[in-house]
Amino acid sequence: MTSVVLFDLDDTIFAHRLAVDRGIASHLAASGVTTVDAAEIARWTELEEHHYHRYLTGELDYLGQRRARARDFAAPYGLRFTHDSEAEGWFEEYLDHYRAAWSLYDDTLPCLDALAGRGVRLGIITNGEEHFQLPKLERMGLADRFEHVIASGALGITKPDRRIFESACEEFGVVVSDALYVGDRLATDAVGARDAGLRGVWLVRDGAASVGEIAAAEASGVMVITSLAQLPALV
Fold it and tell me: Which of 14, 80, 116, 190 is the most buried (most CB within 10 A)?
């Protein structure tokens, strides 16, 4: 029996990618860039993936990955940040635009309501820093919805390391087989949870995976959903 459902945060219940896209476009426009095309937004996303991975592996610290993203992105615009404070200041300006674009997915609240109505305990495991992730829950009115929020920055362990999933289950006082974890990344979230002994669910929104990828995931023991509206039926 599944008594605990654990969620990834960004791009699972919180529309992080949408806020990133809108945030960088708004930041560039405010900086005087008259035309912001899809390629530039995609480049910002690629730099986020690249440098945040360097942070998760310990190659960069948290501020270091921010500075690297700012420097790499701004260079083609002729901006050279000589001092770290300049790169950090540029990134903080971007964050103001990013925060202004925060939102939840339409299926988030109905899913949480359905699970809570059935007495299911809820939590979050996120690869990130508490001081950056918790305000998202507070601003979106979700802080009281989750019994525990486990952030990798506080533990020093990141998904898909099985220990972060095991630590979350210990917080809830349940064995791993009594917990389900859902996230938008196959390897990091669903497979990581499955390998730790939880029920792993891969959330694939908007046709983000091929039929073959979905079939392979299901064959490996991972459950696949295309909306959080489907999650309560799995619990």
Answer: 190
Per residue in 125-141, pLDDT (tens digit) is 999 999 999 999 999 99
Please give the Cα distance from 5 to 231 (Å, whole number): 10
Q: Which of 81, 100, 119 is the last residue of a domain?
A: 100
- The dihedral region occupied by 214, where left means phi > 0, alpha psi between -120 and 50, and beta the remainder, is alpha
For 63, the domain range is 16-100
- We report the CATH number of the domain holding residue 108 as 3.40.50.1000
pLDDT tens string 113-124: 999 999 999 999
Residue 195 has pLDDT above 90, yes or no: yes
The beta-carbon contacts of 54-59 under 8 Å, at least 24 apart in sequence, are 56/127, 56/152, 56/158
| Side chain identity, residue 215 | A
For the question of whether the overall pTM of this predicted structure is more than 0.85, the answer is: yes
